[in-house]
Amino acid sequence: GNSVTQMEGPVTLSEEAFLTINCTYTATGYPSLFWYVQYPGEGLQLLLKATKADDKGSNKGFEATYRKETTSFHLEKGSVQVSDSAVYFCALSGGSSASKIIFGSGTRLSIRP
Amino acid sequence: NAGVTQTPKFQVLKTGQSMTLQCAQDMNHNSMYWYRQDPGMGLRLIYYSASEGTTDKGEVPNGYNVSRLNKREFSLRLESAAPSQTSVYFCASMRDRANEKLFFGSGTQLSVL
Fold first, then answer.
1. What is the CA radius of gyration of chain B?
2. Which of A26, A81, A113, B19 makes the best surface tag, with the fewest CB within 10 Å?
3. What is the DSSP code (8-state) at residue A13?
4. Cβ-based neighbours of B38, under 8 Å, separated by 6 or more
């Protein structure tokens, strides 16, 4: 079945550092890929998505490129801020049911001022 | 703008008790989902309903049942609660396959003693 693997956290960075959070996937067919973010005490919200190979999703300075050849969808940001501290989840849809959406284990990110 | 509403927000049960978690969305979405969130495990899909009248198992369905009561409501039932079901439960909805964005409720913190 489909699966999503994320780098383990927590990740701690200083403000203005470069961020990469790795995500790889296993899937049949052509899944859509997502990054969701969960701020403390809140539910998840969509950060960005990509629906086909080589697509780049972007939002709030974050980017991720759908790489079919490496089955990856790594999240990047050039200069992180304290307000980016949150838990980030990689996810995919597809497989036996196009509506089935599964998530990775999440990566907690903490940014030091 | 209620979005996705979950009740209750907190619940404590004794082993063997039963309860139903309620979820309702007012966005006319077709698909609805139940996830559980555990430390280090990310979000795991319990059940989902791609459209009114259908339900399908997710990654961890054992010990749970669901009912898609109508297009708005999707309930999750624990027939005989176990300590392993202590978790935070999130309901989510999505308009359709063409617009793959999940909207999440604020979660239910469930403790089974």
1. 13
2. A113
3. E
4. B44, B87, B88
The pLDDT of residue B1 is above 70: no
Name the token pair of B97: 């396959």
In terms of CA atoms, which chain B residue is nearest residue A106? B42
User: Rounded to an integer, what distance in angstroms lies between the CA atom of residue A60 and that of residue A38?
Assistant: 14
> What is the nearest CA distance from A70 to chain B, expressed in angstroms?
23
Cα B72 to Cα B3, B19, B108, distances in angstroms: 11, 20, 18
> Which two tokens mark A66?
């759908």
Residue B96 scores a pLDDT above 70: yes
Q: What is the mean pLDDT of residues B15-22?
A: 97
How far apart CA B63 and CA B87 sit, in angstroms, is: 13
Q: Beta strand B10-13 with A62-65: parallel, antiparallel or unpaired?
A: unpaired
Task: Work out whether the CA dihedral A40, B37, B21, A34 comes out positive or negative.
Answer: positive
DSSP A52: S
Which residues in A lie closer than 8 A to residue B43 (C-beta atoms)? 44, 89, 103, 106
Q: Confidence band (pLDDT; 50, 70, 90) for A1?
A: confident
- Kindly tell me the number of DSSP H helices and DSSP E strands found in chain A: 0, 12
Helices (H) and strands (E) in chain B, counts: 0, 11
| Helix (H) / strand (E) containing B35 | strand B31-38
| CA-to-CA dists, residue A92 to A15, A52, A74, angstroms | 29, 12, 13
